[in-house]
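OP here, attaching both records as promised.
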Amino acid sequence: PVSPLLLASGMARDWPDARGIWHNDSKTFLVWVNEEDHLRVISMQKGGNMKEVFTRFCTGLTKIEALFKQKGHEFMWNEHLGYVLTCPSNLGTGLRGGVHVKLPNLSKHEKFGDILKKLRLQKRGT
């Protein structure tokens, strides 16, 4: 963890014990265990088939939740807040979508930041 707030909370005191990543053979579905939250579920692939990525995500998450329920556990849910996660910015669905696109010419444009702001998007590295 790189956040001073997370470090101050003691999040990394046992790092890296009990942490890891499970993934399918094609590495298109991953479950990151005990990183910032208890689970981070990731579905990804190259290309533009977002429906396939989202369907895989939903199917996998449904199976994980069913296995938890078999063991008498479930994700923390609050009527007002939705799913309760470690970071308050993830409350609600806990879902964050992302797309990586190479825009070498647009990203050099002087108004690129204004365009992102208007579209409510973030520029991030890879």
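Record two, same layout:
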Amino acid sequence: MGTIMEFSDIRQFEISTSRGKVRVRIMEFENGQIFLLSDSEKFRLGLTAIAIPPNQGRAEPTSTGFLSAGIESTHIRTIAERISSWVGQTCMIVAAVGNIDQPYMLELLTALKEQILS
């Protein structure tokens, strides 16, 4: 049996969505955060985006997506940008949650905001 280790800079929780439960793991670093989202028991690679928050000279966050294409790239980038703005740090999202359409993106954002800003 392996040893379970807990760290003060790693949080894990579940959110309920219309498509079932999504596991979330947040790893906090001095200069940013990584959010892993998974609709299964194990975390895995998936759609990925990284965003930096707005700062002097830039009113909106800036982001880029990878391991994604088309409209899903836009949706995962939007999630990264919103979270980056909320936490005021660079934010990477790795989402292995199936198809992310606009309604599901908004549902994920609402649930994540409740957890992050509480």
